[in-house]
Write a structure and sequence with these properties.
heterodimer, A: mainly alpha, flat, B: mainly alpha, MetI-like fold, two-stranded antiparallel ribbon, 2 strands
Chain lengths: 92, 290
Amino acid sequence: MALEWMAWTVPTAVFFITIACLLATMTVWQVKSPSIERKGFLPIATTPGDRLFIGLLGSAYIHLAWIGLTSLNLWFAFVISLIWMIVLMRWG
Amino acid sequence: MNKWENNKAWFMVIPVFLVVAVSAILPLMTVVNYSVQDIFGPENRIFVATEWYKEVLTDQRLHDALSRQLLFSALVLLIEIPLGIIIALMMPKKGWGASLSLVLVALPLLIPWNVIGTIWIIFTRPDIGLFGAAINSMGIPFDHTAAPLDAWITVLLMEVWHWTPLVVLLAYAGLQAIPEAYFQAARIDGASTWATFRYIQLPKMRGVLTIAVLLRFMDSFLIYAEPFVLTGGGPGNSTTFLSIYLVKLAVGQFDLGPAAAFSIIYFLIVLLFCWLFYQALLKVGTGDKS
């Protein structure tokens, strides 16, 4: 199937492959060891899937805020997002 | 655990996944790809990284359109949800009156969106429109083509007229599903009408109200056809909502890169609000104050 119409670039391909790998890993994890809701520092009880969703959405907003409010390198936002994801998945 | 591992029904949802993949995920991926490039043609495109996002996020017109959109959606929810519940509570519960009122209430939902705009253009015309001329004849100047406030009132009225029936139908279905035993118990305990509503009807409608709020928020946040036909985004930019501005950018100016970046931001806003509403509505009637 020709995918020229989708105008792929290497960074966006890497981005989507990472998301797909994350989802696949979470699915395998869920099948191997079904998740249990728990309450961390978030005001709601969450499963790992919920925390992944919140983490990804939060990361998107961190990147947008970084782009809109600063002129600094975007890698800083990536590192902050990574820390946010780890903290959320572990203690969220 | 065996239920999960051996459940072959999962294969039955593969067609749905494929349909969603083709109809939603592939276009979304394409929009993301467009948002980081300057597209001159299929073979002629330049990678610009986050330039379009920077441009869009610092665009004052987008900030204005977003403010208008948030205000519009807030007003729509504040009016339509309580109004829909009140109408549903007042509707007959059985007999021919129930059928008749359901048909009458559902009528606005059957009209195509672009026709709605045309109907309201005629209805609110200050010279010959029933509504516009009636208001003017009372000595109150009304012209939605010239006054921003009148344009807002008209768009809101149109939206409320068009979509409150959906809330009514959902709330009515929720009310009809409550077993009579709850009301008998309330009567025995001498509960007031308000207490019956607050502690029986409202909690029991939680599921349908969640759907109603989410649908109404998403629809009102993505509204395009009706205000475009009615006001074209004017007078000035007073009713230029996000989708109208986005279409001007993508189709009018053919700025596909900024329009794609705008679409992704738009999508993220809708996603965030829907998730927040969903979480808040899960707690309605459960007594959870957190």
